[in-house]
Specification:
Keywords: Cytoplasm. By secondary structure, the protein is mainly alpha-helical. It has seven helices and two strands. It has a two-stranded antiparallel ribbon with strand order 1-2.
Length: 145
């Protein structure tokens, strides 16, 4: 009997999916609560923020445009080209705990988390995009609310 887990051939068990969803929602609520107390521009998400941000700008120079960071297109991220670009980016951060764990991202920095304003991404994508938004001051409005 093998003790290795093969994610590619594993069954999608409803209870496991629910547990992942609960964890993702909890992470989103925690982040939102942080933003209500600390301006995003003052917030550090990981000890790797500088490296994540520099790599994001290198791999995705379009993030230098604040409007690009403000409004994220799920279609662009999950297109064939988008998936490949993000996969290469994500693989550079395997040292970050749960770098590939699913989490929720607001598709627009001007919106709160909601059913129509949220997309499912992996944690390193969340970090990269939110670090870019925070450095640009795009999340500071939450604290002022």
């Amino acid at each position: 009997m093998s003790s290795t887990f093969d994610a590619e051939n594993a069954e999608n068990l409803e209870d496991i999916e629910k547990q992942f969803a609960v964890k993702a929602v909890h992470q989103a609520e925690t982040y939102w609560n942080l933003l209500t107390f600390i301006k995003g521009s003052k917030l550090k998400l990981t000890k790797y923020d500088d490296e994540i941000y520099e790599q994001l700008l290198q791999d995705f120079p379009e993030f230098k445009d604040l409007n690009f960071a403000k409004q994220i297109s799920e279609e662009d991220m999950k297109s064939k080209d988008g998936k490949e670009r993000w996969r290469k980016f994500c693989e550079k951060f395997k040292q970050i705990e749960d770098y590939n764990f699913g989490t929720l991202l607001r598709n627009n920095s001007n919106d709160e988390y909601g059913q129509l304003t949220t997309i499912f991404v992996v944690r390193i994508q969340f970090y990269a995009i939110e670090i870019a938004r925070n450095r640009a001051g795009l999340n500071d409005w939450v604290c002022k609310k």
